Amino acid sequence: MDPLAAIAAEVQACRACPLWKGTTQAVPGEGSGESGIFFLGEAPGFHEDQQGRPFVGAAGQLLAELLAGIGLDRSKVFITNVVRHRPPGNRDPLPDEVAACDIWLRRHLDALQPRVLVTLGRHAMGKFFPGESISRIHGKPRVVGGVTVFPMFHPAAALRQPSLRPSLMADFTALAIFLATTPAVADEPAPPADQMTLFGR
């Protein structure tokens, strides 16, 4: 079985935290590792829960537009969230819920070995930069645990607060420049999932 399909099947069966109760289905993530870009958002919403796909609402449309703006198709990147079931009422995911989903992030990173992991929003950013302010560090890539992490605002935040949209567009441009000017390190893969120390837990 394809590694991503195998992980998706395991995520669908996951009962590690109570979030699965009352949801239609899990949202494991989708896309490919072709571009080397891994997007990590916050949590599935209503439409994602119904369709089993991440970023299918207005935020997903904006994400697709931003990708197209730097010459990328959505199908060439991998997209997932820090939790894989929709929190009740679209509330923020709780720390224990985020921690329960760490295993799936580790498994996906191990399978895809991305060149860069783009965090979308403060919950995804907080996994790698706890206590940091997204307004201070967005658009500035840093290496964490052998993975280059590129924090950005969440597209949904730019929809709610249009003044953030120029910053988000500038960060995507910076991402494109980073990918074009930073050599891929083919001989130094990320550590295996069971050896990762990314999250401080």
Could you characterize the architecture of this molecule?
With 201 residues, the chain is of the alpha/beta class. It is 39% helix and 12% strand. The chain contains nine helices and six strands. Strands 1-3-2-4-6-5 form a six-stranded mixed β-sheet, sandwiched between helices. α1 runs antiparallel to α5. The longest helix is centred in the C-terminal third of the chain and has 17 residues. The protein is globular, with a radius of gyration of 16 Å.
Protein traits:
201 residues, alpha/beta, Uracil-DNA Glycosylase, subunit E, six-stranded mixed beta sheet, 9 helices, 6 strands, 39% helix
Layout of helices and strands, plus pairs?
Layout: H1 3-12, E1 30-31, E2 37-41, H2 46-51, H3 58-69, E3 78-81, H4 95-100, H5 102-112, E4 116-120, H6 122-128, H7 134-137, E5 142-144, E6 147-152, H8 155-160, H9 165-181
Parallel strand pairs: 2-3, 2-4, 4-6
Antiparallel strand pairs: 1-3, 5-6
What gyration radius follows from the Cα positions, in whole Å? 16 Å
Main beta-sheet annotation: 6 strands, mixed
Instruction: Please give the CATH class.
Output: Alpha Beta
Strands across the major sheet, in which order?
A: 1-3-2-4-6-5
Beta-strand segment tally: 6
Beta-strand percentage range: 5-15%
Q: Helix count, per DSSP?
A: 9
Instruction: Give the CATH H-level superfamily.
Output: Uracil-DNA glycosylase-like domain
Q: Give the distance, in angstroms, between the N- and C-terminal Cα atoms.
A: 30 Å
Main structural class: alpha/beta
